[in-house]
Amino acid sequence: MASTKPGERKLQILQTLAAMLEHPKGEKVTTAALAARVEVSEAALYRHFASKAQMFEGLIEFIEASIFGLINQICESQDQGLMQAQSISGMLLNFAEKNPGMTRVLIGDALVNEDERLQLRMNQLAERLEMAFRQSLRLAVSQGYLTEPEVQARANLLCSFVMGRWLRFAKSGFKLLPTELAPMQIALLLR
C-alpha cells in the first residue's frame, strides 16, 4: 500500500466526512464509522484531528474559504451592485447543490449533537454572508438603483432566501434543488 503524503490523509478524512453527510438517513456519523470508511483506525483519525469537532471545523474552514473566495471573485469582476448580489445568491445556491453534505453543515443539521461552538461559527458565517449582501447593495445605492433604507431589509431577505433554499434542499433528501426557479426569484427580490 502506497503511503500518503502529509495532508492527503487529512483531506481524505474531510472528503469522506462530507460524503457521509450526503446520506442524512444513512449511518450515523461517528468516528468509528468514519474510520471504517477511510479504512484507518480511530486512533489514526485522532492523529490528524484532536476531536470530531475539529473535523467539522476543518469542513467549515473549507466552506468558508470556498464561499468567501468566490464572493471576492464576484465582487472584483462585477461592478454593478445589484448584479453582485444576484451572482452571490446564485453562487451560494449552486455551492449547496454541488455539495449536499456540506449543505447539512451550512444549515446546522449535521452539527446538532456536536460542540456548540460549531453552530456559533455557522451563525457567524450567516452574518458574514448578510454583510456581503449589504456591501453589494450599498454599491447599488451609490449607483442609484436602491435607497439606503432598503439595504438592510434586502440583504436580510436575500440571506434568508438562500438559507431557506439550503434548508429545503437538505430536508427534501436533496431532491428539491436550491437552484430551481432561483434566477426569477432572486430577480424579484432585487427589483
Automatic annotation (TrEMBL):
This protein's UniProt keywords: DNA-binding
Stored InterPro entries: Homeodomain-like_sf, HTH-type_Tx_Regulator, HTH_TetR, SlmA-like_C, Tet_transcr_reg_TetR-rel_C_sf
Cite a single Pfam family from the UniProt record.
TetR_N
DNA-binding region(s), residue ranges: 30-49
Q: Which SUPFAM superfamilies match?
A: Homeodomain-like, Tetracyclin repressor-like, C-terminal domain
Note whether DNA-binding occurs among the keywords: yes
Q: Which domain of life is it from?
A: Bacteria
Tell me the ranges covered by the HTH tetR-type domain, including all copies. Answer: 7-67
Coiled coil feature spans: none
Q: Does the keyword Nucleus apply?
A: no
| PANTHER family xref list | ACREF/ENVCD OPERON REPRESSOR-RELATED (PTHR43479), ACREF_ENVCD OPERON REPRESSOR-RELATED (PTHR43479:SF11)
In Swiss-Prot or TrEMBL terms, this protein is called Nucleoid occlusion factor SlmA
Q: Which gene encodes it?
A: slmA
